[in-house]
Structure formats: C-alpha cells, structure tokens
Amino acid sequence: xxxxxxxxxxxxxxxxxxxxxxxxxxxxxxxxxxxxxxxxxxxxxxxxxxxxxxxxxxxxxxxxxxxxxxxxxxxxxxxxxxxxxxxxxxxxxxxxxxxxxxxxxxxxxxxxxxxxxxxxxxxxxxxxxxxxxxxxxxxxxxxxxxxxxx
Amino acid sequence: xxxxxxxxxxxxxxxxxxxxxxxxxxxxxxxxxxxxxxxxxxxxxxxxxxxxxxxxxxxxxxxxxxxxxxxxxxxxxxxxxxxxxxxxxxxxxxxxxxxxxxxxxxxxxxxxxxxxxxxxxxxxxxxxxxxxxxxxxxxxxxxxxxxxxxxxxxxxxxxxxxxxxxxxxxxxxxxxxxxxxxxxxxxxxxxxxxxxxxxxxxxxxxxxxxxxxxxxxxxxxxxxxxxxxxxxxxxxxxxxxxxxxxxxxxxxxxxxxxxxxxxxxxxxxxxxxxxxxxxxxxxxxxxxxxxxxxxxxxxxxxxxxxxxxxxxxxxxxxxxxxxxxxxxxxxxxxxxxxxxxxxxxxxxxxxxxxxxxxxxxxxxxxxxxxxxxxxxxxxxxxxxxxxxxxxxxxxxxxxxxxxxxxxxxxxxxxxxxxxxxxxxxxxxxxxxxxxxxxxxxxxxxxxxxxxxxxxxxxxxxxxxxxxxxxxxxxxxxxxxxxxxxxxxxxxxxxxxxxxxxxxxxxxxxxxxxxxxxxxxxxxxxxxxxxxxxxxxxxxxxxxxxxxxxxxxxxxxxxxxxxxxxxxxxxxxxxxxxxxxxxxxxxxxxxxxxxxxxxxxxxxxxxxxxxxxxxxxxxxxxxxxxxxxxxxxxxxxxxxxxxxxxxxxxxxxxxxxxxxxxxxxxxxxxxxxxxxxxxxxxxxxxxxxxxxxxxxxxxxxxxxxxxxxxxxxxxxxxxxxxxxxxxxxxxxxxxx
Lengths: 150, 735
Ligand code: FES
Ligand code: FES
Prior knowledge:
The structure holds two protein chains of two kinds. In chain A, α2 (80-91) crosses α3 (101-114). Chain A is globular, with a radius of gyration of 15 Å. By secondary structure, chain A is of the alpha+beta class. In chain A, 36% of the residues lie in helices and 14% in strands. Chain B is of the alpha+beta class. Chain B folds into three domains: 47-211, Aldehyde Oxidoreductase, domain 4 (2-Layer Sandwich); 222-295 and 355-434, Aldehyde Oxidoreductase, domain 4 (2-Layer Sandwich); 304-346 and 447-729, Aldehyde oxidase/xanthine dehydrogenase, molybdopterin binding domain (Aldehyde Oxidoreductase, domain 4), CATH 3.30.365.10. In chain B, the strands form seven sheets. Chain B has a seven-stranded mixed β-sheet with strand order 9-10-7-17-14-15-16. A five-stranded mixed β-sheet of chain B has the order 12-20-19-18-13, sandwiched between helices. Chain B has a five-stranded mixed β-sheet with strand order 21-22-23-24-27. In chain B, a hairpin with a 5-residue loop joins β1 and β2 (66-70). One FE2/S2 (inorganic) cluster sits between chains A (95-101, 131-133, 135) and B (76, 352, 403).
C-alpha cells in the first residue's frame, strides 16, 4: 500500500510503486481533471502541484510523491492564488478546447505562489506548457491579470 | 489500399437512419417534461425536414434549465456558445442560461447541406438561419400557449428573458411553466424574426459558456469517460500499416504482468486489456510480436522524400481547374518569365487529447459508444458495421473534443473505436481504448504533401500578364468524396487557394495533376489552403520582385476589380500602422514585413507578419490580421479563433513535418515533432470587418495567410526565398 496526500486527504493506493502519479490520479482515483497529453514531460497537460511546485505527473513515479502535499486541478480554488488564477482564466476567456488548461492553471498558480509579481521573463520561464489551440497570448494576459488582482 | 471501410462513402447520401430507430434516440428529446408522448414521435409520419423540429433542438425543463441540442461538437471553436447566442436571440432567453450538448445521431441535425458534420468552417453559416427560425418558432408556440391560458390574443403578449408577459394585467409565466402546452401546439408555418437592429446577443462578444469548467478541470472529454465494470486497453500498432502480427514471443511473461486480463490480435495492432490503462500500456509495450510484412498497406519502401521526388517528377498535364485568356501566348510574348517550384510536407494534427473510444454492449444487445468525432451519423454507421448491429442499435456519444483540426473524421486505420468494439465483444465487458501519444503519431492521418510548379510572364512595366500553375498530388475531397461525386478530374481540395484568386492577371491557367499518395491523408485545418496560399502568395511576391514592384503596391494594383479584398488589404495596412516592408531597425535588430491575402471558406483575410532572424532561425514578432467573414455572431470568438489559426499556421510553417521512412512516420512524440510553444507565439492583432457579404467561415480562414506573410517577410529581410516548408529546414545567415 502506498499512502498519498491529495488535496488534503490521505489515500491508500495499491499499485506498483513506479506507476506514474498521473495514472493513479486518473484511473485509480477517478480524478480526470489532470490530463494525459504526451507522457514524456513535453506538454505539461498532466501538471499537478507537489509541495507547491508544478510537476509533470506523467513522469513522476507515485512512490516519489509519498509524503508530499499533492494538489490537483480539482482543488485549485482552495488555494487563494489558485482562486485568483481561475478567475483570471474565466474572465480572460483563456481556454479554447480546454484540454491543456488544467495544466496551464496549475503552472500559473505555482508561478504566482512563488513570484507574486512576475516579469515577462518569469512568465516565459514558468509557462512552458504546450497549447495546440494557441491560447498563449491569452494565457500571458491572464497571468498578468491574476498577478495584479488584489 | 484495400480492405478498408470507405470513410465518406455514405456521407454524401446523408445519414442512413430509419424512422423507427430514431424513436429511441428522439424519445428523450422532449421540450418540457409534460410533453405528450405522441408529440415526441409520430410513428409513420413523414420525417420533418432537418432543422425544423423544435423539440429535437430545445428542451425547457420544469426547473428552468434550457438544454440546447447542438448539431455540432464543441472542440474549442466556441460553437456551443454561438448556437446559444443565435437560439437565445430569437427565443428571448439569455444565452448564459443554456446548457449546450452535442445532439445524438438523428436526421433532424443534418443541417449542413443535408448532412451533418463539424468541419469546413461551416457550422455557424450553415445553421444561422435555421437556429434563428427554431428559436422564433419556439417563442411563438410559447406565446400562443400563454394566450390560450389567459384567454387573450397572442399579439397582446411580449416575452422577456424566458418569461411571457401580459403587460395590461401584469401577469407573467415562465417558459418552463408553459413548455408542455406550447409543444402540443402545431408550429407556425411562418414566424417573424427579430429585427437585426435590435439584436442583444448576436454580434456581441458574449462570454463563452464553458470557461469555468475548462479552467477547473471539470470539462469531460472522451478520454475521461468511464462506466461500471470497464476494463482498459492499450495497443501496439504494426510497425507499418499492412504488417500483420505473427507469433507472440513472450506471451507468458506478459500474461503474468500485474492487472493483465487478456492479449488480443486486431487488424493492424495487438492489444492488451487490463484493469488500468497504465498496466495495459506497460504490458502491450512489453509484448514482443513477430510482425510479418503482410499484404497491402503502405509500401515497405515508402518515404516522404521519395514521395516528394515523385511529385516533382510528375509531368502529366492533368485537368484544367481554371483557365482565362491564352496563357501560353501571354508567356511567349512576355518581357520576362519566371518559374518556381514550391512544396509542403505531411503534417500531423497533434491535437492535445489523444484518441480514445469506450464501447459498452448492453443486455438488450445495443451498443453505447463514446468517441471523439466530427460526424456522428457516419461513425454510428461504421460502428454498427463493426459490431454487426443496425445503426439504430448504436447509441453514439460525442463528448467535447480536446482539439480536432480535422483529426476526428473517419480515416482508415486512424480511429480506435473499431478496436474498442472488438475488444468489448471479446471480453464481454465494457472496454476503453486509449492510444498513447506514440501510437497516435503512428496512425494519425496526415495533411497531404503538396507540390506546385509556377510560371509567370511579366510585361515591360513589370506587371504580370500570364500565370500558369500545375498543382500536383492528392487531396482529401478527391480521396474520400471522389466516388460519390462521380470522380471529377479536378479535386477542389487540391487547388483551393490557387484558383479563383482576386487578382487581375489577364491570362491564367491552373492545372490539377493528380498523383496518388499512399499515406492516409486527412483534412487538416484549412485543408488545401493550409499550403496553397503559401505557394501562391509567395510566388506573387516573386513576381513583384521580378517586376521591381513593392509587393503591397502590386497587390493593390491587381485588386482593382476586387473592392472587398482591396478594402481588406488597406485595413490590414492601417492596422499595422501603415505598410512598410523594410528591412528596418527595431529593438536593436533588423526586421522586415510580409503581406499575404487568403480567400477561404467564403471569408477574406489579409495578413501582415513582422520577422527577424536570430541564431539562424525565423522569429515572428507581430502578426496583424484583417478578416472579413461578411457578417458575424461573436467578435470575441472570432478574435480567439484567429489567434488560434495564426498559432497553427505558424507552428506548421516554422516547425512541422511528418517524415516517413520505410513505410512509417518517424516522429512519435512532441520531442521529435515540435509544435509552437509560448516563446514562439507572436503578438496578434485582429480587425474584423463586416462587409455584408454572405456569412463565411471562422475556424480556418485565419490560417492560410500566415505562412506566406512570414515567407515574404523573410525574403524581404534576408533575400532568401523559402519555397519548401517548414522554415526550420533552412538556416539563415546574419542580416
Ligand atoms: S502528459 Fe505529462 S508532460 Fe505531457
Ligand atoms: S486550449 Fe486546446 S490545447 Fe490548449
């Protein structure tokens, strides 16, 4: 049994220790807000917060997440910064197909938790997730907007 | 290629559904819970024409919810919101109150020229009048129901956001309270539509309805579906389409892996069914298969390089796609003749949601199937064939799409639903198949490779007097609709963007030279336009250069008989702060601009791009787009669709190329098939112009102008003319 702390709740999970956290979330726990895009840490659709760091869960063995605080998109609005980010995403109408956006919101939340007033360079360095719909300009605007929201 | 389901063979004839079969699907689609059964489905009556039966499109629930059943699937283009805006305008209900879902298969939804699809940038323009009429018809029924109840004349009543009002007496009733009675009334033959000058929703930047769900992980896609008792499957495709699975070399080892339920041989693949997808994937990738060459499929020596060489070597004359004047004579008499050859590679759709399909056979023998698709009735029919059922025994669900761009039509070997059906039959349990990103790159159907040979003649003043083009290759319309269309010699999806250009070149001849491509080809955002405007508009800049003319000024001159495009060119010039070609100094470096026009899906577009060169690569800083779709529904959605089209146009032209070797695509993930990331995204400014021309498309037309605008800017800056995409193949010297 592997014990994980996900969105503040302790979960016992019976899987191989090297199973990617992504598939534990999606299959074992049925939390499908975290998305699978590439499986090789290229796209960021699978991002979750691991002790506040944006982490690509498709390449994170579940055993390495033991003891960490895992926050997924399902609980993002329980974080004050996450709530602001979601508001900026909705207000700025960022998503198109939406498939990448769980990961984008996670990445933006991690950035603004660590760097409340990011420069454009900070945004570029942190927001590396792919979006095939090309919502990049709206994403950058929404990050700036969330940063400026009191 | 043989032994395949002809993907679009049934499409042109329209969906094949019996009235009896529709009963099951449509029984649920009632307007208001109290709708009498006999109204839901009049057995034996002639089917009403598509797009006319209110109850197929609208449910008004007693709790005040408005459910709109859309003929179209939402995949980021904003069509759910657009439908709610149009329906809400005439029904007099705030669009924000609608829940929009993609309707199940049914004749009612064949509103795109008698068929149903989400594609061709056709959704809004095909259904605008239909949705308005449906909304107005429903409103009229609600008014009459209220009039009967209150014993007043309908003319004395008004509506206000979901309520009927009798001003004189101050009485009011919600639509929900009236829905049952309203739907028992016969719909009026003619209804009055709202005066467009009083529109509150149409034409406004109404907020899209799905923003919250998509920002909080609640939006559910096919890949997220699950049902009780479901197993999951992963596949390993044959190394090349056509190869067949021989022996399994380590079957016992794989069977013993955790969670493994069973191993299966399928057409073109092997599959492992397991209790979770990760375990299935692990197992199927561990399985060692002795693949045999097999029959048919992609030739073992097929390569994209070989294909391009074959297209270049093709000297057939083909069929005339456009002819005006005497081009041969014009070229013979020209003061100067220039020639050029252009090519563009195979492209992957690379939508971010990998394909999946969930199949569940029910106790009564019917099948429920969830899958990403752009044509529900077509997939329903195909699924029925695979399952050995009648189409009406297949309940097809079309969840929201995690991007599509043409990916989710029915292409040979490119869809996982056949695998899901066969596996569900084999294991007698519901099965969800997900293709890993690697398997998706292995089987995605590709944008065709394109090749065009141009010649132009210029007079002594540098003006083009004749233009000749041979467009060589194959297009998806010809491949998938050719037979249904009686095999016309010209494939419109090959030549669009090269024929019917707005320029006053007096003599021109465009030939369509068909040369089959073994690869499984696809529709890809803007189809032939995705490369043809690059070819044509780049060559037009070569003409300008040969004649010593500024490319913007030359276009203006050639548009003397095309006022709509002339206005648009002027508009994009203004938007960019006035046309300047450069090179010029900006932000510590040299930059230049290029311009291009595109006419696609009845929409006109003018694009200007600003570029520089850094470390040998093209950097695009700014893109200005003026777009004239005639008339519009939601300017905010249009602006976002243009942003998206610019991104995809740039991504494809800068970076993307599917390379085949030995009959198989080489790149299997985003590391080897890079797509545009945030650092390469330019600033994009959009101006929407409503010329009043018939409504055009939105999702695709923003794309075709981008590659040539960039190419023309690069030529202005470096003097180097890129005639082969993607740009990343060319290294540029310092400027
Ligand atoms: S799915 Fe993890 S980075 Fe793409
Ligand atoms: S919104 Fe579609 S991939 Fe980002």
